[in-house]
Amino acid sequence: MFYGPDIFLAVEGKHARTIRPQDLRVLKSFSEDYPECQLVLLYRGTESLKKGDILCLPCEPFLQNLTPGRSMLNT
Asked: What number of CA atoms fall less than 13 Å from residue 38's CA on the CB side?
Protein backbone atom coordinates (compact mmCIF):
# COMPACT_ATOMS: atom_id res chain seq x y z
CA MET A 1 0.00 0.00 0.00
CA PHE A 2 1.16 3.53 -0.77
CA TYR A 3 -0.32 6.34 1.27
CA GLY A 4 0.42 10.04 1.32
CA PRO A 5 -1.12 13.48 0.84
CA ASP A 6 -1.61 12.87 -2.90
CA ILE A 7 -1.87 9.10 -3.12
CA PHE A 8 -3.76 6.18 -1.63
CA LEU A 9 -2.91 3.11 -3.65
CA ALA A 10 -3.23 -0.61 -2.87
CA VAL A 11 -0.95 -2.79 -5.00
CA GLU A 12 -0.91 -6.57 -5.17
CA GLY A 13 1.39 -8.70 -7.30
CA LYS A 14 0.63 -12.09 -8.83
CA HIS A 15 3.10 -14.47 -10.44
CA ALA A 16 0.70 -15.35 -13.26
CA ARG A 17 0.39 -14.47 -16.94
CA THR A 18 -3.41 -14.38 -16.81
CA ILE A 19 -5.84 -12.88 -14.33
CA ARG A 20 -8.47 -15.09 -12.75
CA PRO A 21 -11.45 -13.76 -10.77
CA GLN A 22 -10.02 -15.18 -7.53
CA ASP A 23 -6.85 -13.10 -8.09
CA LEU A 24 -8.93 -9.97 -7.50
CA ARG A 25 -10.49 -11.08 -4.20
CA VAL A 26 -8.05 -9.42 -1.79
CA LEU A 27 -8.14 -6.03 -3.53
CA LYS A 28 -11.95 -6.14 -3.77
CA SER A 29 -12.16 -6.92 -0.07
CA PHE A 30 -9.74 -4.10 0.77
CA SER A 31 -11.84 -1.65 -1.26
CA GLU A 32 -14.91 -2.44 0.85
CA ASP A 33 -13.16 -0.82 3.83
CA TYR A 34 -11.33 1.85 1.79
CA PRO A 35 -13.46 2.74 -1.25
CA GLU A 36 -11.37 5.87 -1.94
CA CYS A 37 -8.25 3.75 -2.57
CA GLN A 38 -6.98 3.13 -6.10
CA LEU A 39 -6.51 -0.59 -6.72
CA VAL A 40 -3.69 -2.05 -8.82
CA LEU A 41 -2.90 -5.67 -9.61
CA LEU A 42 0.55 -6.33 -11.06
CA TYR A 43 0.91 -9.54 -13.04
CA ARG A 44 3.28 -11.19 -15.52
CA GLY A 45 1.04 -10.70 -18.56
CA THR A 46 1.51 -8.14 -21.32
CA GLU A 47 -1.80 -6.22 -21.36
CA SER A 48 -2.87 -3.23 -19.30
CA LEU A 49 -6.56 -3.65 -18.56
CA LYS A 50 -9.26 -2.82 -16.07
CA LYS A 51 -11.31 -5.41 -14.18
CA GLY A 52 -14.08 -3.45 -12.48
CA ASP A 53 -12.31 -0.89 -10.28
CA ILE A 54 -8.98 -2.73 -10.42
CA LEU A 55 -6.28 -1.59 -12.81
CA CYS A 56 -4.29 -4.63 -13.96
CA LEU A 57 -0.80 -3.84 -15.19
CA PRO A 58 2.11 -5.88 -16.46
CA CYS A 59 4.67 -6.00 -13.66
CA GLU A 60 7.89 -5.49 -15.63
CA PRO A 61 7.06 -2.16 -17.33
CA PHE A 62 5.44 -0.88 -14.13
CA LEU A 63 8.63 -1.48 -12.16
CA GLN A 64 10.91 -0.22 -14.94
CA ASN A 65 8.98 3.06 -15.13
CA LEU A 66 9.11 3.87 -11.41
CA THR A 67 10.72 7.28 -11.18
CA PRO A 68 10.93 9.57 -8.14
CA GLY A 69 8.53 12.49 -8.44
CA ARG A 70 6.41 10.85 -11.17
CA SER A 71 3.00 9.22 -10.80
CA MET A 72 3.26 5.47 -10.21
CA LEU A 73 0.48 4.84 -12.71
CA ASN A 74 2.17 6.44 -15.72
CA THR A 75 2.96 3.21 -17.52
From this structure: 14
